[in-house]
Design goal:
3 helices; 0% strand; mainly alpha; elongated; 59 residues
Length: 59
């Protein structure tokens, strides 16, 4: 499974627009490992982005 597909699935799930068929297809091809790693990394990036924006706005 390509990294782009994993990232796009995780982003779709973040925004709540992941289709049930796509979710089933993603998890039928392999384990949840790549999705968990991508989810944790993207969540961390979101937290850092929010922190940077908040620091810039507080100046």
């Amino acid at each position: 499974m390509s990294m782009w597909r994993v990232i796009s699935s995780v982003l779709a799930a973040f925004f709540g627009v992941q289709k049930e068929a796509r979710r089933k297809e993603d998890f039928s091809r392999g384990g949840a490992g790549p999705f968990i790693v991508a989810g944790v990394l993207l969540a961390a990036a979101l937290v850092v982005l929010i922190a940077v924006v908040a620091m810039l706005a507080a100046r």
